[in-house]
Amino acid sequence: MSLLSVALVGAAVLGVGVPLVLGLPNLSILGLYVAVPMIAAPLVARLVRTDRAGVGSAATAIRVDWRLWSTCFHLLGAALVVALVVTEVRPYGFYAGVAVLYGLCFLLIVATPPGRSRRAVALYHLVVALLLVVYSVTLNYGFFVGHTDLSAHTAITNSILETGRTSTLLPGYESFQLWHVHAAFGSLLLGDGVAAHTTAFLLSGGLFAAGVGLIYGFARRLHPDETFGLLSALVAIAFPLYLFYGMYSIPRSATSILLLALLVALASRPTGNVRLLTLGLVVAIVVAHPVTIPFVLAILVLVAVAERATGRSEPLVDVYVLGVSVLATGLYWLYAAEFVVARIAGTIQSVLFDPSESAVPEGVIASPWVEVANYVPYGFALFFLLLGFLFLLERRSREPVADDRAPPDGAVAGDGGRVQRPHLLTIGVVAVALAPLVFPGPLLLLDALAGVNVDRFGHYAFAFVALTGGYGLYELVRRGGLATLLAALVILSLFTFTAVSNDFTASDNPVVERPFYTFYLADEERQSFETIDDRYRGAFGTDRVSCRYLGELHGAQCSVIDAGAGEAMFDEHDAVLVREDELADRPLQFSAYVDEAELPRESLAERDRVYDSGSVSFHA
Length: 620
Description:
The protein has helices at residues 2-21, 25-30, 32-47, 58-61, 66-86, 92-110, 116-138, 149-163, 177-190, 196-222, 226-238, 240-247, 251-266, 272-288, 293-310, 319-336, 338-353, 362-366, 368-374, 376-398, 422-438, 445-450, 457-460, 462-479, 482-501, 523-535, 544-554, 580-585, 601-605, and strands at residues 143-144, 520-521, 540-542, 558-560, 576-579, 588-589, 593-594, 609-612, 616-619.
C-alpha cells in the first residue's frame, strides 16, 4: 500500500504540473478535482491505519435508538416538501436540508445497533432521500429535457397511446420501444390526468429507488457486514450520475437497474435457477436498449480479467456469463437491431477518416474554474473510492481471505467484518480501472476526440464506485474514534451538498452555474410553444432544445440556427423563436452557445415581433 500511496501522490502532482508546463492551464485546473483526492486518500488511509474496531471505535461505542434519527428525518423532510411548494425555484437552503437528510441517514446507519429493524428503516430512509432529490426536479418543473433525448422518447410514448401501436415516428429509436410501451402502459393505468412524460419520470424514479435495495443486496453478497451494505447504498445515492439518470427517464435508465440486478445474480450461488435468471437479465438488457450491451460486455470482461489477476477460484463472471452475453447480443443485433451495427460502423469510419468533426467540450476552454467547481462531488466520490481500494489492499496483505460466497442476506459477521470476501477486492480493482471513464475530466476528452460515448461507462459502472467508496467510508468509521466519525460526517455532508447542488443535477438553481442550458422547460415556455405551433405552420429557426421539443412532440418545421454566421445568423430563416427567459440567465444553444451580449438584436428588430409571452418571443 505504501508504494501505491506514493504512486497516487506522484501521479496527482504530475497530472496538475505537466499540463501547466505544456501551456495548458485549463487542463491543469480541471485536474485539481482528481489530484486533491489522490493526495488526500493515502494520507487519511495512513492516519487511520490502526484497526480499532471493537476496542474503542466510535462505531461500536455510540448506540442510539433509530427512532431519534427517523423522527428528525421526517420532520426535516416535511419542511423540505413545504419549501418546494412555496418556492418557484429550489433555494440553496433546500440543498443544505437534503445534505442534513443524508447526514441523518449516515448517523442512523453507524450509530444504531444492527438488526432487521435498522436495516429496513435505513433502506427506507435512503429511498425517501433519493426520491426527494429526483422528484423535486422532474415533478416540480414543467418538462425535464436532460440532454434533450427525452423529447423524442416522450413523442414515441404519446404516439403509442394515440394509435395503440408501436411507433415508427423516429426510426433511430425503434429498438428501444420496450421502455416506451412500459411508459405508455403506466400512463393508461394512471389515467388521462397524468401526462406520458410524468409517468416516465415516476417510473424512472421508482426504478432507481429499487436500485438502492439492489446495491445493498450486491454489497451483502460480497461482504457480510450490514453496515457496509448500507453505507454503499448511501454513497450510491450521493453519486451525481445516479441522481441525474434517476431524473433522466429514458431507456438507458431501465438498463442501469437491470445491470444491477444482473450483478446481484452473479454474486449469488450459481444454481440452475440463478443461471436462468442471469440469462433472462442479459436478454432483458439487450432487448431494452441494444446500444447498452457493448458497455456491459466491456465491464463484464474487465471483471473477469480482474478476477484472474487477483486469483479468485470461484469467479463472478465465468465463461457461461460471457458466452450468453455475446450470443444474445449477436442474435438480437442480427435480427432486430441492424441500425446498431450501422451506427458502430459509422462511428468507426468517422474516427478513422473524418476526425475533424470532434471538438473539445466548450466548458473546459471557456470556464475551467466553473467546471472544476461542479466536479467537486466527483472528487469526494473519488476520495472514498481510493480510500476503499487502499484499505482493501491493506487487509489482503495482513488477513486471511475467505474463498466462499457471502452468506445469505441477513447473516452478520461475528467479528465485525474482519475476514475479507475475495470478490470485494475484484470490485475495487474494476472501480479503479473504470475511474478514468466514469469520472468527468481530462481523459473524457477522448469522448470528443474519438467520437465514442466513453462517458456511457458512468451510466453502468456506478455500482462499482458505490461499493468501493462505501467500503472506504465503512472502514474509516470502523477504525476511527469519535473525532474520525465526526470528520466523516462533515465530509459526507459536503459530498452530498455538492452532489445535489451542482449544475449537472440542479440546473434549476446551481450553486455554481455552468455556461450551458437549463435541463428543463418551464410551463410558461411550453405553453408559448403550443401557442406558436397553433398559429404558425411555416419553417423557423430556434435553439437546439426548443427545436427538439417542437419538432419531435409537435411536428414543427424547425431548424437549429447556425451561430457561426455571426450577425447574419438569423438571415436564412423566415421566422425566429427565442427563449427570452433562458437567454437572460444562460446562453442559448444554437449550433454553438450564444449569450445575450452576442445575440444580433438589430437583426431581430428588423422583423415583426408577432408573439411575445415574456418567456418566449417569435419574430417573422
